[in-house]
Amino acid sequence: MLQSPPSADSSRPPAVNVMRTLGLEPDSWQTDVLESTHPRLLLNCCRQAGKSTVVALLALVEALFVPFTQVLLLSRSHRQSTELFRTLLDFYLRLGSPVLERRTAHELHLTHFSRIVCLPCKEETIRGYASVGLLIIDEAARVPDDLYRAVRPMLAVSGGRLICLSTPYGQRGFFHDAWAHGGDDWARIEVPADRIDRITPAFLAEERRALGESWFRQEYCCSFEAMEGLVYPDFARCVVPAVPASLAGKPVGGIDFGFRNPFAAVWGTLDRDGVLWLTGEHYSRGKPLSYHAEQLPRGVTWYCDPAGASERCELRCAGFAVRQGANAVRPGIAAVTARLETGTLHVEAGRCPNLLAEAQLYRYDEREGGKGEAPLNEHNHALDALRYLVTTLDERHLARPRRRSSSDTLAESSDASAAAARRSARDPWLDLGNDALWTRLT
């Protein structure tokens, strides 16, 4: 048992030696993790690969070997970050609790001024930490983007390391963006199930039959799958590079009230042809209504969550034009879908990231055999704001098509002229200047 920080004098990094001292032989990819010194590390691992084990050990060794080191453990919930801390604590106790100063259910303080803290997934409670030597985000694919943005500055002064570990969860969020588009800023380690000897081919075959191909690839093959059963599977096609410079119309927006759940607002312009152009969003948790009011643009007619009567009243008192939105879920989904299909909903690229992220996760309840009409009540706050807006705008138009836009008419006219020109080019006899086509009237 270790009664003081282990000596770093070894032919191998101390983390590998400590793991073997605990009777655990690291997999080859775990050795890569323990030996890596890259400041930004992504671990894309299948279920039961051992990612929590190796990261907990790495965090413990960092605190033991480097005095004055602050290690933070973060996950999608406090329960999950606590589970990671318990794994770490088990290793620490098996090493004989070296250089212990104080231990609680969520923190470990060492006599050389290092400490390890596990945190809940709440932006408002984690901003007080600074000079972090190692920041670990477990289940990173499910951690909200706003929380990720809140914790990154903790590494600014210390130059500390950031390790994100997860099984994929759709093509959305900071974890997917970093994996797919992070470039050289990140080192990446991918661990599919076929690299784990402890997971048998027979078990994987059974899981493939039970989960279906898409979920199996996500859970065991490290694949960032588009979610099955999405409510708006084609939502991404409404994204446009930019709105027209001459865009004019009525400023409108939708609001979904929330506190622990996000307060979500989206807004834009309803043009003269009835096309809705979304150009902004506000998405935040744990803030008072006064804070949200400062983020919302004035001069917009807002269609709001029908359940938020007191919030609507407060916004009216603050000078906002507020209306009660329509709340029927199924007609609302149909109304948004109709706009997606007719091309009368556009989202300016880069302006509504949370709305687009939710659209990749909002799905129907699979417990109903994939045939139910009720979506899961999650990942839908910005989408609910959009639904309140669209359903109210399109009320009494749901059973008949909206008026075709002038741009559509011009485009079709142009297409028709082009088609006529192509026909003429193919067959000169059909040209209008061919006298043989005409009968002279006398």
Structural class: alpha/beta
Low-confidence stretches: 3-12, 404-416, 418-426
Oligomeric state of the chains? single chain
From the spread of the alpha carbons, the general shape counts as globular
Total strand segments: 15
Q: Biggest sheet: strands, sense, closure?
A: 8 strands, mixed
Helical run tally:
14
- Overall pLDDT: 85
Under CATH, the topology of the largest domain can be stated as Rossmann fold
Integer-rounded radius of gyration: 28 Å
Can you identify the CATH class of the largest domain?
Answer: Alpha Beta
Please give the alpha-carbon distance between the first and last residues: 116 Å
CATH superfamily of the largest domain: P-loop containing nucleotide triphosphate hydrolases
CATH architecture of the largest domain: 3-Layer(aba) Sandwich
The SSE string, one letter per element, is: HHEHEHEEEEHEHEHHEEEEHEHEHEHHH
Strand arrangement across the biggest beta sheet: 3-4-5-2-6-7-1-8
Number of discrete domains = 3
Helicity, as a percent range: 25-40%
Question: DSSP strand (E) fraction?
Answer: 15-25%
